[in-house]
What does this fold into?
Amino acid sequence: MRRFIIWAALTGLFLAGAAPVDAQEPWRPEWRARRAQAELPVPGPQPETTYVVPGSESVHDGSAESISQRMSALQAELNMLRAQLRGQLSAPPGAVPGEIVYEGEMPFLGEGHYDAHLEGAQCCMVVPGGCCGDACGPLSFGADGIFLHPSIVGNHAFLVTTTNANTSADSRNIPFDWDTEASYRIWVALKDCDRFGIRGSFWRFENSIAQVQTLDPNQFATAEVFVPGDSFEILAPAGSTIDASHRLDLAVVDLDVVKDILWPKAMLTLTAGLRYARNEQNYEVDVIDATGAALASLKHLHRFEGVGPSIGFELRRCIGCSGFSVYLRSKGAAVFGQIDTSVDEAEFGVETNAYTADGLDEPLLIGEVGFGFQYSWHKLWLRAGYEAQYWMNAGNATSTGDDLGLVGFAASAGLGF
It folds into this structure.
């Protein structure tokens, strides 16, 4: 509950700071239009400014007879700016076509197309105000390097019992001590001029860990696997070596519909779609005597695959016009599928017990959150921040019913065209 309150407070601060001040103030963009043979005036008094208007010659400031023609030039300029803001720019009568160059912030008049070029009516995918530095183009793609530390409930390798001289015994679970491990994510997005589009991504985490212990003469160990309605156990006697390993393989494929909502200094991206998730865990234990001979072994494999709906959002807020911004993202999915489980138990190399269960229905709930900093420069952006995932009912090495958490940091790079 405390984590939820903190998360809600952070989201509120982002939303509160996203737009109120800037959204209420009128836009006052500085601009300059340059053409090969015609110049349009910069707003404000400009001595000896030259105008080109339909059916007239060049007129100079300071002449009372030129007032009506000056007003016509200003009206032509205003019409050109309005058309440009609507993505329908065309050369005004009497003007020579050329490139429009903006100096300062990009003007914004609410929803609609964003056009930064005279020819082709291309969509300029920028956050209004131009301070977040989004790439001008509908296509974007990128890759994330995500470094996560697995935290798995009840994820024990084996149980070691030590007997004392007074016949008392002390038992201790030896856990799998995971380090921070690397994973990766790749994604591609396609949006139209209204900032509406689709986005696909693929994430993979595949790592393993081992726990080995040679038992003292006053120690023995047990390894146990739990399945619905049953359990399997092997014994490691004193003086033997017990070797346990756990392999964790997670994969996610997302296909989402996305929509960007723009404010002068911020952008909110909403997503909704489908998620495919795979969770495969493999647990193996071998008991070896002092000569290297196999005494016993235990193997447990459970695999989940499913598809379900997902929703999410990402909020990004510019830090001035420096190219830097902060972001907050969250996503949740309910994946429905089936679990396949198998257990193999052997002694002296001979299988003594086995278990198989296919097609057990079990929902998997997945939550994600991330926040950090982003730097944008032309078509390139870089990002670094915190990343966390929570997989409910993902199971662990020895059972299928516990939860899995992944916490770490992410470094990302993306390009837009």
In short: The chain has a mean pLDDT of 78. The longest helix spans residues 67-85.
